[in-house]
């Protein structure tokens, strides 16, 4: 086939013999590229006709995404094959050949990157399409695939650029000279690229060990934040008010942080209610049970009402209720607070906390406040001067009281 193709190109070149030699050679190469384009379109149409809803759909989508780099590589191959019969001068032919080699290497790397992205997206789509998918498993695979995909893109890019540069003779010799002095060069490069390499290896370690995953809810600097994006060198955290924290990826291996969705997205929310000592706990507990059991955000697993603490003014009721996710737990707690406060205000006003001030009657029995109901019970105190302290010079240090309540020294 190659011989027939070259013979066809030679005939085409002879058809342009009435033109200048260089122009006829360029036209012949253009015809070779046009043949490659037509051949690529013909093959693409054949592949797109493959039936099937699963594998056939994947093959069709893969073909559509890869057609551009593959088409360019086919044009490069066809033009490179036609160069020997193009009649170009030797120096121009050498420069053209080298240019085509560099372009082919770059397009090969680009095609590898595109293929990696298509395969990873297809895998994630397959995981998302499962009806019985586990949220933790899904986020684990999303994190691993995305971090490893970015690392693969970086490695493919480095290898592609390196391979393209190695086609130049001066660069190849420079690389050999660097290899000869690899001791000093590696030390300098290692020190200069230490932050980049640290974050790069940290990204690979996070992809394997999974301390954080995509859409994990973590606490950082006192803020709730969701893991929005994990790159090779940094992590983007989305705060509830749409702010973004950009954190080096090595931070999550060198510092402690809270991950609220590491093993499960479900959380137990806690609500504290402060009530007076006169609060009817039976009615309050029953009302809280009705609120939680009727809430659609409650997952039906954990619920309890307990008097957790008390002080001189109020007693503290602790309500716990579980939810399927952190945000649902937050909304559930807000709903519990709103409804129980409305219940206390409307139906149990005696349960609302209040400050207590006790007024003691004066010695004359008159109450300066004018309200006998505000008086506390009388306090029985010893009369003034009843206790004079231990007798000086005695060893016992005791005290005797007379019937009248007067102490004798």
TrEMBL record:
Nucleotidyltransferase among keywords: no
Residue span(s) of domain Mechanosensitive ion channel MscS: 196-262
Record keywords, A-Z: Membrane, Transmembrane, Transmembrane helix
GO cellular component, one term: membrane
Main location: membrane
Transmembrane segments: 15-39, 70-88, 100-120, 174-197
Subcellular location: Membrane
Skewed-composition ranges (Gly residues): 394-409
Entry superkingdom: Bacteria
Region described as Disordered: spans on this chain: 375-409
GO molecular function terms listed in the Swiss-Prot or TrEMBL record: mechanosensitive monoatomic ion channel activity
This protein's name: Mechanosensitive channel MscS
Organism: Komagataeibacter europaeus (Gluconacetobacter europaeus)
